[in-house]
């Protein structure tokens, strides 16, 4: 009788142990999947804020940048880490890299953007500084952080307005700066792809934000949710390409 009881106790203990081991293993596996760190520029409003909301809801770490961190109330509410960054300011970029030294970044979304219909040299120069040189300098500054990732991804937010096959419209500064950011993508791809990076240009589609206007066909929640799935699916075959928010390839 005593032997039978101790046998069933041993069986129960073994089963408990197996459950515990499999529970711990699956928790570790989920933890691994959850622990991506995403850096999003211009994350205080519009599509940038939506990336922060959705990545946080998915359990990821988000570093969201804002020109005025004190005013980035909604971004802070997502649980994202908020860092000051004007992408046209070299000192801000240097401080960002310094503050993040040694920290892994898995996905960099160069999202901050500027649109003006103003045709002055000043406005066109600012378009280049934000939309083209911003992604270039931020990517360069954070390359050491991205190199700490197993699968680093750089997403340069572009626009269909920058396609060479388009060329219409009165948003000259915006269009030419987005065409040029596509070359930034090609250039970074050629330098970083051999190090395992995936670098793409992404057009998020016309969205209902301050930039896209209320009449835009897409809601940020919908397009960003598709973009996040697309980013998760990216592999080396996508690198150096120009992609729409739904994962279809675009002509340059
Ligand atoms: N919405 C669309 O329909 C659409 C379509 C195609 C492509 N895109 C692209 O998608 C991205 C996000 O667009 P969105 O619609 O979310 O625009 P948005 O609502 O106008 O937001 C723009 C974001 O960029 C930031 N930003 C502007 N200048 C900056 C600078 N010098 N340094 C750092 N951040 C700066 C803004 O910060 P502040 O709040 O400080 O100004 C804001 O966070 C942009 O690259 C845009 O070109 C948008």
Automatic annotation (TrEMBL):
Keywords: Signal. Residues 1-29 form the signal peptide. It comes from the Bacteria. It holds the Pfam family adh_short. InterPro entries: NAD(P)-bd_dom_sf, Sc_DH/Rdtase_CS, SDR_enzymes, SDR_fam. Belongs to the short-chain dehydrogenases/reductases (SDR) family. PANTHER family: SHORT CHAIN DEHYDROGENASE (PTHR45458:SF1), SHORT-CHAIN DEHYDROGENASE/REDUCTASE SDR (PTHR45458). This is SDR family oxidoreductase. It comes from Haloferula chungangensis.
